[in-house]
Amino acid sequence: MSGPSTYEPKTGFTRWLDSRLPIVRLGWDSFVDFPTPRNLNYWWTFGGVLAIFLMIQIVTGIVLAMHYVPHVDHAFESVQRIRRDVPFGWLLQSLHANGASFFFIAVYIHMFRGLYYGSYKAPRELLWILGVVIYLLMMATGFLGYTLPWGQMSFWGATVITNLFGAIPVVGEALREWLWGGFSVGGATLNRFFSLHYLLPFVIAGVVGLHIWALHVPGNGNPTGIEVKTKKDTLPFHPYYTVKDGFAILVFLTVFLAFAFFMPNVLGHADNFIPADSLVTPSHIVPEWYYLPFYAILRAITFDIGPIDARLGGVLAMFGSIGILFVLPWLDTSPIRSMRYRPIARWFFLIFVAACLALGWCGAKNPDDIIIAMGTDAEGHATGFTVLTFAQILTAYYFAYFLVILPVLGFTERPKPRPASIEASVLGDNAAQPAQ
C-alpha cells in the first residue's frame, strides 16, 4: 500500500541510526508520509482517540498502583486515601475511572463505524479480528479494574461474573476456583485480579501494535469502500490527517475532562462507595454501563435449549454475542463494503444500533419491571410487557442480524452505483461504477 520508503536522513547521526535501527524511517513511513485515502471523515479519527486513551489509562494506572493496597481489609480505604491524601490523587483516580468509560465510548463508535463501512471485509479480515481481540482484552481489563475499589458493587459483580464460569461443563468448577484462588471471592481473588489488571493493558498495547501493522499492509478503508487506484486517491497522513485527527481528539478530550473535573462519579454506581460486605447483597447487581448489553443477553435466556439448560445457555449467548464478531467477515456475503450504497442493509444496521442501545437499557433494569401494563393477575399483581420479554426480542434480532440478515442481503439486495474512484467521490465526478 505505502510503496517504497521516502525517508531521507538529513544528519550524520540519523544516517548512522538508520543503517542500524531504522526506527525513524518506520515512524516517517507509518505516520508522516503514509498514503491515506483522501475522503476519510471524522468517524476515522477514533483510532487515534483510542491510542491516546490507552496511554492515559496506562500512565494513570501505573501511578495509582503505587498507592493501591490489594488486600480485602485495606483496598477500599486505600482508594479513599488516594482521593484525599495523595497529591493530585483525586485527579488521577478520576482520569483513570472515567477514562475507562470514554475508552469504551470510543471503541464502540470505532466498531460501529467498521460495521457500517464494511471495514471487516477482504483484505482486512485479520485487521478486524485483531480489533475484536483488543475489545475482548479491554472487557477483561475493565472487569478486573471494576473489582479493585472493593466496594459493594465491585465485590458482588465479581461474585456474579465469576460464578458464570461454573456453568461451563466439565472444567467450569475448576476454572471458577482458579479465578477465585480458593472457594469464594476473597483476598486471593483480589490479588489475582490486581495483577492481571496491571498486566493486560501492556498486552493490549502489544496487540494494538499488531493491529496498526495489519492496517498498514492493505491500507485504510474509506467511506466509499473502493480501493486506492491512483496516487490522486490519497494524501500524505501528515499534515492533512494529523491536523484533522488532532482537532477531533481535542474535542473528545474536552468532553472527557468535563466529566473528570466536574462529574467524576456520574458514570459509576453509588453502591461502590459502600465497603464490600459478603453478608449484605445489593438489591440490584449490575455491571459497568459498557457491559450492560451483554448482561441483558445473559439474562434473556430463561429457557432450556434442548440439552442446554438456561444458565449455560445464557453464558453461551453472552460470549457468543462477542464471538460472532470473529466470523463476521465471512457472514456478510455482499461484495459491496460501504452501506452508503446498500440502502436496505443501512436500515437494518440502524435498527441493529438501536437494538444494542436498547439492550444496554434492559441490562440496567430489573427484568421483571413492566414496560407496558396489560392488566392484573388473579392475585392482583400487574402483568404486561416486561423488560425480560423486550430483551429476548432484542437478543433474537442481535443474532439474526449476523446469522440471517447480512448473509441473505448479500444475495438479494441491489446496491446503488458507486463512484468510479475515491478522487471522483471527493471532487464530485459523476462517473460511477455499475451496481453489482
Automatic annotation (TrEMBL):
SUPFAM superfamilies, sorted: a domain/subunit of cytochrome bc1 complex (Ubiquinol-cytochrome c reductase) (SSF81648), Transmembrane di-heme cytochromes (SSF81342)
Membrane topology, record value: Multi-pass membrane protein
Stored Pfam families: Cytochrom_B_C, Cytochrome_B
Transport is among the record's keywords: yes
Domain Cytochrome b/b6 C-terminal region profile: 227-420
Ranges for domain Cytochrome b/b6 N-terminal region profile: 13-224
Stretches that traverse the bilayer: 42-69, 90-111, 126-148, 155-175, 195-215, 247-267, 312-332, 344-364, 384-409
PROSITE patterns assigned to the protein according to its UniProt record, in alphabetical order: CYTB_CTER, CYTB_NTER
Keyword field contains Ribonucleoprotein: no
Domain of life of the native organism: Bacteria
Assigned keywords, A-Z: Electron transport, Heme, Iron, Membrane, Metal-binding, Respiratory chain, Transmembrane, Transmembrane helix, Transport
Subcellular location: Membrane
Cofactor field: heme b
Details of cofactor binding: Binds 2 heme groups non-covalently.
Functional note: Component of the ubiquinol-cytochrome c reductase complex (complex III or cytochrome b-c1 complex), which is a respiratory chain that generates an electrochemical potential coupled to ATP synthesis.
Subunit annotation: The main subunits of complex b-c1 are: cytochrome b, cytochrome c1 and the Rieske protein.
Family under the similarity heading: Belongs to the cytochrome b family.
Protein name per UniProt: Cytochrome b
Annotated organism of origin: Hyphobacterium marinum
